[in-house]
């Protein structure tokens, strides 16, 4: 085996295992990333800082604490009972949050960040959290 380095192996960019990328590399990454990618990365960092489980890592029947941004909030009856449904996104995956018997909840609106905890269930291939315990994140952290 040869120990010759080629320009395409990352040696010329300063990429070294265990060493964080430099300021210039971070700036280039930011400029070349889409707004959605940047928002997803920010949400993932927020989840890690809050000590929450990534939604993408949540399994069926697991008790979890997750955080993210509400993408949609809709009123949909379930079995004849009003149900407020919201989609929570944390940068890794989406989760449906359902409050049975509620038509609206003050502060639950698209774009709002929150922390929710409860038992995950799977419904039609999607993760669902029914009647979770939740905390609204302060508006200054939006």
UniProtKB/TrEMBL annotation:
Gene3D superfamilies tied to this protein: Nucleic acid-binding proteins
Against CDD domains, the record matches this protein to: RecG_wedge_OBF
Provide the GO MF annotations for this entry.
helicase activity
Question: Where do the record's region annotations for Disordered lie?
Answer: 1-25
UniProt-listed InterPro entries: NA-bd_OB-fold (IPR012340), NucleicA-bd_Rv2694c_prd (IPR016499)
Task: List where Basic and acidic residues composition bias occurs.
Answer: 1-18
Protein name as catalogued:
OB-fold tRNA/helicase-type nucleic acid binding protein
């Amino acid at each position: 085996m040869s120990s010759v380095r080629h320009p395409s192996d990352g040696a010329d960019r300063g990429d070294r295992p265990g060493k964080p990328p430099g300021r210039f590399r971070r700036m280039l990454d930011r400029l070349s990333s889409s707004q959605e990618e940047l928002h997803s990365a920010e949400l993932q960092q927020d989840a890690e800082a809050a000590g929450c489980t990534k939604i993408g890592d949540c399994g069926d029947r697991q008790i979890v604490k997750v955080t993210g941004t509400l993408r949609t909030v809709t009123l949909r009856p379930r079995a004849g009972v009003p149900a407020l449904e919201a989609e929570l996104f944390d940068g890794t995956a989406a989760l449906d949050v359902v409050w049975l018997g509620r038509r609206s909840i003050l502060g639950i609106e698209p774009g709002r960040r929150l922390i929710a905890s409860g038992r995950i269930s799977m419904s039609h291939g999607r993760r669902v959290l029914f009647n979770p315990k939740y905390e609204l994140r302060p508006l200054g952290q939006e």
